[in-house]
Task: inverse folding
């Protein structure tokens, strides 16, 4: 059995869903659980094609509740387990995700955002930001990478497994239907050949030895008897989450230090924002670009620095202020004002962003 | 001189006495399960999942790796574990609300896929933990908090025939039975056969156990037993419902 589909570095031209499937294989993921939903289907399709060749497993479940809970089970068994979903599936999956959050289970979930609310479109949106960062009846102890390119889909899918198993928080690759379905070139590589060490999973149940005799039983719960018990657990989680946040948080910025107006965007929209900002800067307009790569945790320190210098943040997103809420939360008390460019469920072009910048700058 | 141990070897002594109400059937089921695990010698391989419902009180009941899940979701969690590590013996323990209402899609589909796991479902005819509401298994005419005038089958249907349904949708190789805490020896036998079915890799195994909830039934000892043995068995027939055919070929 060949060990891996990719050796060394190689250029490819493929869809984002295919990239995620390859990256999961290359991250040494063991098992995928999933339920069909557009636009993530091809992650399962490519995974199931590769799985038998590389000793991997797949289970198609009866719904996303089950896909999420079986993924939880896979992780408990000590396997690198993942699932993928979108839209209404993401809604259902919040229940198992909240269990993973409560018990610090390193599940990995790829979300390819589609239009909402409800069934809406199967095509594209950035409307699953709130759900993916803070869904469920909890506190959002999750790590969310919002990718913009196929290269990032590859890089961050590999990274997501490492982050999840290193810190034991549920970890997400937040893509969208455009990224899922379009073809683009990227370099795929064997992470280990680049010195990226793949974090090994560990079993929570089913370890060797008889519990109570050779070792204590591995027993886990998410129910508590009294408020204080839960309070203590959550305080500890928060402490640990806050402690790792600075090293987990990632961002990209361009001319954000010296501009009065900074465009803030994430995911695929940031490609348009970057293009618009670069063109305008070449034309001598002082305008900046800032993009959180992690939406949970937000790169708060860097964003606050920007918001303390700039007069205005232009927030561009394919949703009505889901990113903006995260930004406002991060920059509370800073000087910058906010101007929205919200297009729920629709793409945003560089021209639109450029025109908006010009109209703001007058 | 040998001393007869009151508790199965696989029980955790330090978490006893257990937390169920006096007269509750859950403890009897878990005793039978503990004995079956002891007799099969699978304490090192078993992974136990409990639901939300009174079953959650058993999350640290055994000296066995265990996971307390969400209401109705024990089946997919144990399925996920078993799929990821087929070496374990996966046991999903749940109530009738968990298994037949909120988690029914998982029961149906795990059975249809012939998952190599063992489900033990405690039928106490109502939602115990939340204070005695009507469940899919509530008997016609039975008063519960949400059927205060008695369950009206015209409006809310008849009790779910769980094992009969599972037997109908599983393929050859599955094991399906209904036991009762009124007959511990038989109950243990069914649970043991269900586990053996998994150990032998035959297929899905499912045992419903008729059980007692004096707290919500608001019954004394005598009436509790009468309801269990006389009333419940009118709808819920105790016995083996599906047993794998012996493999004739093996003997040839
Ligand atoms: C999603 C969800 N809905 C509702 C509940 C509340 N709840 C907790 S236990 C329970 C009923 C348990 O009844 P059953 O499964 O029959 O178990 P028993 O307590 O009778 O053994 C319910 C509805 C919950 N925990 N989660
Ligand atoms: S409420 Fe009923 S089912 Fe729950 S522990 Fe008490 S007697 Fe048992
Ligand atoms: Mg019940």
Result:
């Amino acid at each position: 059995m060949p060990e891996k589909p990719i050796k060394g570095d190689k250029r490819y031209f493929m869809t984002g869903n295919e990239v995620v499937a390859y990256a999961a294989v290359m991250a040494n993921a063991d098992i995928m659980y999933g339920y069909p939903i557009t636009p993530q289907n091809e992650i399962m399709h490519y995974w199931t094609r590769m799985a038998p060749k590389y000793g991997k497993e797949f289970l198609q479940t009866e719904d996303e509740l089950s896909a999420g809970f079986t993924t939880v089970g896979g992780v408990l068994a000590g396997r690198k387990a993942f699932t993928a979903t979108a839209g209404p599936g993401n809604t259902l999956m919040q229940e198992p995700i909240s269990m993973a959050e409560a018990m610090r289970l390193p599940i990995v979930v790829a979300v390819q955002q589609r239009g909402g609310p409800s069934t809406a479109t199967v095509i594209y949106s950035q409307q699953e930001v709130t759900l993916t960062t803070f869904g469920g009846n909890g506190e959002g102890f999750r790590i969310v990478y919002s990718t913009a390119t196929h290269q990032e889909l590859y890089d961050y899918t590999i990274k997501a497994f490492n982050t999840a198993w290193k810190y034991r928080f549920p970890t997400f690759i937040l893509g969208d239907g455009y990224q899922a379905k379009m073809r683009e070139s990227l370099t795929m590589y064997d992470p280990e050949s680049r010195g990226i060490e793949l974090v090994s999973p560990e079993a929570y149940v089913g370890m060797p030895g008889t519990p109570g005799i050779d070792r204590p039983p591995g027993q886990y719960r998410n129910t508590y008897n009294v408020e204080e018990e839960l309070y203590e657990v959550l305080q500890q989680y928060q402490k640990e989450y806050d402690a790792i946040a600075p090293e987990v948080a990632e961002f990209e910025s361009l001319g954000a230090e010296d501009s009065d107006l900074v465009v803030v965007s994430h995911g695929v929209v940031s490609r348009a924002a970057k293009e618009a900002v670069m063109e305008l800067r070449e034309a001598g307009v002082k305008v900046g670009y800032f993009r959180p790569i992690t939406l949970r945790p937000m790169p708060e320190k860097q964003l606050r620095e920007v918001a303390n210098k700039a007069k205005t943040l232009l927030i561009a997103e394919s949703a009505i202020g889901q990113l903006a809420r995260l930004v406002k939360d991060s920059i509370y008390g800073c000087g910058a004002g906010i101007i929205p460019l919200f297009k729920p469920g629709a793409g945003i072009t560089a021209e639109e962003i450029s025109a908006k910048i010009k109209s703001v700058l007058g | 001189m040998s001393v007869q141990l009151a508790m199965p070897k696989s029980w955790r002594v330090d978490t006893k006495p257990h937390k169920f109400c006096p007269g509750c059937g859950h403890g009897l089921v878990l005793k039978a399960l503990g004995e079956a695990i002891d007799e099969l010698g699978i304490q090192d391989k078993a992974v136990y999942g409990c639901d939300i419902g009174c079953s959650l009180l058993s999350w640290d009941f055994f000296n066995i790796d265990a996971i307390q899940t969400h209401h109705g979701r024990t089946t997919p969690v144990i399925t996920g574990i078993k799929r990821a590590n087929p070496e374990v013996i996966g046991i999903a323990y749940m109530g009738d609300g968990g298994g037949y209402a909120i988690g029914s899609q998982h029961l149906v589909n795990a059975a249809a896929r012939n998952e190599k796991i063992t489900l033990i479902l405690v039928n106490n005819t109502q939602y115990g933990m939340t204070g005695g509401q009507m469940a899919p298994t509530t008997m016609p005419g039975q008063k519960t908090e949400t059927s205060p005038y008695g369950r009206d089958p015209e409006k809310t249907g008849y009790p779910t025939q769980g094992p009969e349904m599972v037997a109908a949708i599983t393929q050859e190789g599955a094991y399906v039975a209904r036991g009762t805490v009124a007959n511990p020896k038989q109950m243990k036998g069914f649970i043991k056969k269900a586990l053996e079915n998994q150990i032998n890799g035959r297929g899905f195994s499912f045992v419903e156990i008729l059980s007692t909830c004096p707290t919500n039934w608001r019954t004394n000892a005598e009436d509790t037993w009468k309801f269990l043995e006389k009333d419940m068995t009118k709808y819920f027939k105790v016995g083996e419902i599906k047993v794998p055919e012996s493999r004739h070929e093996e003997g040839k």
